[in-house]
Design brief:
Helices cover about 20% and strands about 30% of the residues. With about 375 residues, it is an alpha/beta fold. It is globular. The chain starts with a strand and ends in a 6-residue tail after the last helix. Bound molecules: flavin-adenine dinucleotide. The site of flavin-adenine dinucleotide has 34 residues, from α1 and α7.
Length: about 375
C-alpha cells in the first residue's frame, strides 16, 4: 500500500500528521522536509530573546523523535523537485515515490525587495529555524540592527531585539507601524511604546540602497536620510510557496487553490497552511492551521470533514504595547470606531448597522479580547 505523503514539516505538516494519527494508527505515512525536520513553533522565532530561547533550545522535538511520535517515516533535508498528479508520484531528484494521498504543507517564501548597493546581498530574513540560526550567529556581538518592514513580524523583532539591548531602527513606506492591522490611533500608541524602549522609526520612506561601511552597512533611504547599522533584517512579508504546485499544473491563485475539504485541483492532492488558499482566503497564521489540520486529519482517516474557521484574533508579540488584532475580512464593509486613552486604544470595526466585524486592541483594551471575540462572525462558517 502506498503511503500518505506530507511535504513539509512545519506546523501544518506535523499537525496534520498528528491529527491523522489520533484517528488512524495504521496508514503508512511519509513526511518529507527540505529543512531539519525539527518540530518547533515558528512564532517563537520573533520573541526568542525575550523568552531566552536559542536556535538549539527552540525545537520542542528533534527530527529524530518524530518517527516514533507519528509512526511515520520522516526524511529531513530532502527536497521534492516535482509532482506528477496523474501518476500519483513525486520526484526527489532522480528518485520517484508513489503516494496514495499527497498533502502539500509547503509554507510561504519571503518577499524580496529589489535592493541596490554593494551590501544588498547581506540582508537577512527569518522564516525558518535555519534562517533564525543564521540570524542569531550574525547578530552575536553586534550592536545595531535595521529592520525593513513595520508589519507584524518587523514590529515583533523590533521589540525583541530592542529588549535584548540592540539599537533598532525600523523602516517602512507606511506612516505607522502595522498599517494594515491598526487604525492610526492604535499605530501611534504602538509607535510611541516601541520608541520608549529605544526603537527609532523611519516611516513614510523606503530603502534606496544598502552599501558596505566598515564591518557593517550604510542604509540610504529614499527621503535622503542615511544611517549605519551592523545588520539588516528584512521583514516585508511572505507569499505562498506555489512553484512546485504550479509546475504540476495545479490551480494557483494567490496560493494553492483548495476547497473546504482542502482538496486541490488534482485527485488525492490536498494543501493547507501558509501555501494554501482556502475558499479565497490566504491566512498565514497558526490558528487557521490548527483548524485545517483537524479537518484534513479526519478526511485522510476516512471521515471527509470540511474546515470551518471561527473568529481567530492574532496576538502581536510586542510586550512594550500589548496588541491583539482581528482584521475585518473586507476593509470596505465598515468603518473604525476608536476610543483612545493614555495607554489604551480600543478600535472596533463596525458595519452600517453597528455589527462588529473586526477589532484592534492596544494596551489595557486587550483585556476586552474574549468578550469582543464572542461577538465576531466566523471567518469561514
Ligand atoms: C517570525 C514569525 C513570527 C510569527 N508569529 C506568528 C504569531 O505570533 N501568530 C501566528 O498565528 N502566526 C505567526 N507567524 C506565522 C506562522 O508561524 C505560520 O503561519 C506557520 O508557522 C506556517 O506553517 P506552515 O507549516 O504552513 O509553513 P512552514 O513552517 O514554512 O513549513 C513549510 C515546510 O515545507 C517544507 N518545504 C517547502 N518546500 C519543500 C519542498 N519542495 N520539498 C520538501 N519540503 C519542502 C519546508 O522545509 C518546511 O518544512 C509567524 C511567522 C514568522 C515567520
Amino acid at each position: 500500500m502506498h503511503p500518505i505523503v506530507i511535504i513539509g514539516s512545519g506546523l501544518a505538516g506535523y499537525n496534520v500528521a498528528r491529527e491523522l494519527r489520533k484517528l488512524d494508527k495504521q496508514a503508512p505515512l511519509l513526511v518529507i522536509s527540505a529543512d531539519s525536520g525539527h518540530y518547533y513553533s515558528k512564532p517563537m522565532l520573533s520573541n526568542a530573546f525575550t523568552t531566552k530561547k536559542t536556535p538549539e533550545t527552540l525545537p520542542m522535538n528533534k527530527a529524530e523523535q518524530m518517527p516514533g511520535q507519528l509512526s511515520a517515516t520522516v526524511r529531513p533535508h530532502t527536497r521534492v523537485t516535482a509532482i506528477d498528479p496523474a501518476a500519483h508520484q513525486i520526484r526527489i531528484g532522480d528518485e520517484t515515490v508513489t503516494y496514495s494521498k499527497l498533502v502539500l504543507a509547503l509554507g510561504a517564501e519571503q518577499i524580496r525587495l529589489p535592493l541596490t548597493g554593494s551590501a544588498a546581498d547581506r540582508v537577512l530574513s527569518v522564516n525558518s529555524l535555519d534562517d533564525y540560526a543564521r540570524f542569531r550567529a550574525t547578530v552575536d556581538g553586534k550592536h545595531s540592527i535595521a529592520v525593513i518592514g513595520a508589519g507584524l513580524i518587523g514590529c515583533e523583532f523590533a521589540n525583541d531585539l530592542s529588549g535584548a539591548g540592540y539599537k533598532v531602527s525600523v523602516i517602512d513606506i507606511a506612516s505607522q507601524p502595522l498599517p494594515r492591522l491598526l487604525p492610526p490611533e492604535g499605530g501611534a500608541l504602538l509607535k510611541r511604546k516601541l520608541e520608549s524602549i529605544g526603537v527609532t522609526w523611519h516611516l513614510g520612506t523606503s530603502v534606496a540602497a544598502i552599501d558596505t561601511r566598515g564591518d557593517g552597512v550604510r542604509v540610504t533611504l529614499a527621503n535622503g536620510d542615511a544611517f549605519d547599522a551592523d545588520v539588516v533584517l528584512s521583514a516585508v512579508g511572505l507569499k505562498p510557496l506555489t512553484a512546485l504546485a504550479r509546475a504540476a499544473g495545479l490551480k494557483i491563485n494567490r496560493g494553492i487553490v483548495v476547497n473546504r475539504h482542502l482538496e486541490a485541483s488534482a485527485p488525492d492532492v490536498c494543501a493547507l497552511g501558509d501555501c494554501a488558499e482556502v475558499e479565497g482566503l490566504v491566512l498565514p497564521f497558526v490558528m487557521p492551521i490548527m483548524h485545517a489540520s483537524r479537518a484534513l486529519g479526519a478526511t485522510l482517516a476516512g471521515k471527509p470533514t470540511a474546515v470551518t474557521y471561527p473568529a481567530m484574533p492574532v496576538l502581536v508579540k510586542t510586550p512594550a504595547c500589548p496588541t491583539i488584532v482581528s482584521p475585518p475580512a473586507d476593509p470596505a464593509a465598515g468603518t473604525w470606531e476608536v476610543t483612545a486613552a493614555e495607554d489604551s486604544v480600543k478600535s472596533l470595526f463596525l458595519d452600517a448597522k453597528g455589527k462588529l466585524l473586526g477589532f484592534a486592541l492596544n494596551g489595557k483594551a486587550t483585556e476586552e479580547r474574549a468578550a469582543l471575540t464572542k461577538q465576531l462572525p466566523p471567518v469561514l462558517g
